Amino acid sequence: MKPAEFYERDWRMHPPALTPVYKTSVPRSPGQALLTLRQTMSEITGPTFGHNDLGPNDNDLIVNFGHGGLPVGERIIVHGRVLDENGRPVPRTLVEIWQANASGRYRHKKDVYLGALDPNFGGCGRTLTDDDGYYYFRTIKPGPYPWLNYVNSWRPAHIHVSVFGTSFSQRLITQMYFEGDPLIAKCPIVQTIPDPEAVQRLIAPLDLNTAVPMDCLAYKFDIVLRGRRSTLFENRLEGN
Q1: How many distinct structural domains can be found in the chain?
Q2: Residues 6+ apart with CB under 8 A from 39
Q3: Is 150 known to be catalytic?
Q4: Is 51 marked active-site?
């Protein structure tokens, strides 16, 4: 039998919008049923991104914000493929990342955590997948940080990942965690995900085959856009 173009969504993997253990979900969760709006030609036809929109170091967070030096912290590679539900590559898709630095602090005016700012680390990058759906970043492993959820709540080390579709309005956002981090299981945001397998798909395993000797370790994070094996996207809990 020929496989269907799209697999049925598995709603069991998605957390409910209202999860009081994650305090900010209370004011953010909708009070009424969601509405689905049909996109018009202006949304589905553009704008799109090409190689001319990217700088030579946009995917290298180790050097793309340097001010005369290198950032502090553990150097790592984050790489993987963007795939559809049948395992086919999704080429020429814009992938963006943003993250805290090694001390757990973001370069953002509203981040008041006492972790030190790194003058040589901006914390964001972007790249286009190649014809095989492959993407690649060099960066610094982010540190965990406390947050005002409940007493002594800490976010595990993570990198935010954004994937654009065929137009600027088609955007999916998720978070990548690191294999072996004990804070993952204790994170109130992660605890809202009811499916343990969905949680595992957010955790990037160590990839020594891609690590560079005497330079940096590597972590592999494949992104599946739809179907029962899809990556969980925090801004599209109803599916994509």
Answers
A1: 1
A2: 169
A3: no
A4: no
